[in-house]
Model the fold of this input.
Amino acid sequence: MHKIVCFDFDDVIINNKFIFKLPFIGRKLRTLELGAEFIEGRLDPKKFNKFASGVMKEMTGIPVNTVMRILLHMRLQKGARETLEAVKKKGYKIVIISTNDETFIRKFMEKHNLLQHISHIYAAKFGVKNGLMTGVISGDVIKTEKTGIIPKLEKIYNIKRSHIIYVGDGLTDLPIIKKIGTGVLFNPNELTRLEVFASRQLREKEKKGRLFITNGKDLRSVLEFIP
Done:
């Protein structure tokens, strides 16, 4: 049986706590602002699919190379490199589970020479045709609030879900944290903290030492909870 640590990507491995703008190409100059709710994971997970689809429709016709070029300017989270290296040294397989685009995640990890630490990436896929964004986003991570990945992990890595560790930061990470063994919330926003407090299941998990919340902006803070 393998040991698994799953990481969310946005605001965990990558630092993107801002609203970025993507220029529309070939149209009247204007910008698409991806709202703070989307970027910081403040959306109710049940509404995320609809919201993400709406955002993607607004990107229809933009060259995918332009999107990737802008996204690749994002910064690596402080301590992310050291955290991934330490987790791998402890003997864990590292899996990324994200609602961001799989191709972008791979390119970003390659750019920072970190892809060799990653065993698997489960992520969404931006629709692309003839080099242009189609406005479609797909993938189990969107449809199932990430929880649909759990059976795949159990099968591929011969592991029980109770032995999976998941590191996330926002509301969209809570459904999967409820279903696996140990959850670690890295510097979560206030809405996420309130949801943890309001959920009897999550409070019980925290009381039993299976849910931890870290403060600060250095990802190495999660290492304390990965034995």
Q: What stands out?
A: The domain at 4-225 is CATH 3.40.50.1000 (Rossmann fold). The two ends are 16 Å apart (CA to CA). The first strand starts at residue 4 and ends at 7.
